[in-house]
Amino acid sequence: MYLAPSLQIADTPVEFIVEYLLKAKEIADNNANVPAELRDNLQKALDIASGLDGYLENMSSQESEPLAELYRKSMSHDWDKAYEDGKTLFRLPITCITGRVEGQVLKMLVHMSKAKRVLEIGMFTGYGALSMAEALPQNGQLIACELEPFLKDFSKPIFDKSPHGKKIMVKTGPAMETLKELAATGEQFDLVFIDADKQNYINYYKFLMDHNLLRMDGVICVDNTLFKGRVYLKDAADEMGIALRDFGQFVTNDPRVEQNNVTYDEVFEGVQGKAVLDRMRLDGKVAYVTGAGQGIGRAFAHALGEAGAKVAIIDLDKEKAENVACIPNMAVSADISKPEEVQKMIDDVVSKWGTIHIACNNAGINKNSASEHTSLEEWDQTFNVNLRGTFMCCQAAGRVMLKQGYGKIINTASMASLIGVGFGKENGEEVKFREKVKFTVPHPQKQLSYNTSKAGVVKLTQTLGTEWIDRGIRVNCISPGIVDTPLIHSESLEPLVQRWLSDIPAGRLAQVTDLQAAVVYLASDASDYMTGHNLVIEGGQSLW
Ligand SMILES: C[S@@+](CC[C@H](N)C(=O)[O-])C[C@H]1O[C@@H](n2cnc3c(N)ncnc32)[C@H](O)[C@@H]1O
């Protein structure tokens, strides 16, 4: 706490020490019998103690203009009058306010802990709240609990002036009620600052801990824990001092704090210090996605880009590729059924970004015909893109990856790879195979060449995944169920949608966004032990 000298009222232990030293020095100065050496020592102790707060203030980051204005406004307000006029429920002492140094320390804690959500219990005029909000990211939030409705209105004009004020949400009323409300909606905080009624600190603390309001590894900061020294003075009988001492004792003995009994291994500290979500980051990685101009490929490209990778958007249609906004990226047109175009697309990416870490071979086509009528032309076209094309992409990207001893290949297969196609007739009625042989089929569409080519993609993935694993390359595939794309709302396919829905335990079609986390996982180090795997995401359809 630092107050202007004219407003100085001793509050911290150091301020009390200064007050007592000043009195002792005065007595010594007025008493001729006091040895000069004692006076000299008193002066030295006084210099050290009285210079501390001012020095800390000078050496701390300077407050922003909105904070300075809030401080001035709080200091100059007549709080006694506000109480006498019935504006506040209680007589609020100005010593309540968080000081400038403390404000900067709180801001630093938010910054250091990378907190996104902060809870303050006891806001007063909002100096601490705004200090912390300044260190929160744009999408961060601070919830401030304050008993006095007057204070919400008092701080609002200044919060509105600050670009960080919109991150603060003030909840008026008894803090315990607000905590219950937050717990009921499952809220969690990275950092909590307890600074309200001292007798309730222990209750706030217990509630936070018992109701998981603090996220794992979160931090609780508590003001006034030394409370004018009255927590450790032997003869102190002060009610608040005793409450704060009991609080300190409780926290010291709480096994949940600092987690002294944890095992400091990679599970706790993260693999190479990276927590699980950090291990999914793709910063610095170079990726390409084929068939990325729309649908699943576009969603994959976005997801990889969001996770930090540079992404080459590859599509037969260059215009579509160029319209995919995912930064940083490059658009390349390529027909993956043509070996020279596959090689060129790989060369283009390597010449722009130096290498390829993530190859997402997603392009494919789907044609429907009853098996007895499937033409060789349909079969060849389907296989040329879906299987031969995917093989050529794996091989060309794989050669780049083998040289660097690292790579992640993710092929798009299909739930259709799991299941055969076909219908049978029984007593003249068409029946599904699965009713006869307990074997699911994608139906009623007939797509032998598609299903077979996608089964080939799975086998290609399994074979490459095991062949190249010892050279640093993982090859996996994703098998989506029926994805809700504009294509399936065509006149011919729309009637099938109802039929499909009745076959999907999840009760809905897949959205492309349902697949995004999977591609990031398979592209990241988090999936290093997975290879040759077919990750099926179909809402349970292949199980029914
Ligand atoms: C020490 S001041 C807080 C200072 C503030 N953190 C700052 O940055 O300036 C304590 C505040 O807690 C509020 N308060 C006291 N009891 C409360 C309760 N039961 N629920 C919510 N707020 C309470 C008071 O009205 C007062 O504004």
TrEMBL record:
Q: Determine the domain of life of the protein's source.
A: Eukaryota
* One GO molecular-function entry: oxidoreductase activity, acting on the CH-OH group of donors, NAD or NADP as acceptor
Mention one GO biological process in which this protein takes part, according to its record.
methylation
Q: Which Gene3D superfamilies match?
A: NAD(P)-binding Rossmann-like Domain, Vaccinia Virus protein VP39
Asked whether the keyword Lipid metabolism is assigned, the reply is yes
Q: Where are the transmembrane segments?
A: none
Query: Which InterPro entries does the protein's record reference?
Result: NAD(P)-bd_dom_sf (IPR036291), SAM-dependent_MTases_sf (IPR029063), SAM_O-MeTrfase (IPR002935), SDR_fam (IPR002347)
List UniProt keywords, sorted A-Z. Fatty acid biosynthesis, Fatty acid metabolism, Lipid biosynthesis, Lipid metabolism, Methyltransferase, Oxidoreductase, S-adenosyl-L-methionine, Transferase
UniProt record similarity statement? Belongs to the class I-like SAM-binding methyltransferase superfamily. Cation-dependent O-methyltransferase family.
Protein name per Swiss-Prot or TrEMBL: 3-hydroxybutyrate dehydrogenase type 2
Instruction: Name the source organism.
Output: Triplophysa tibetana
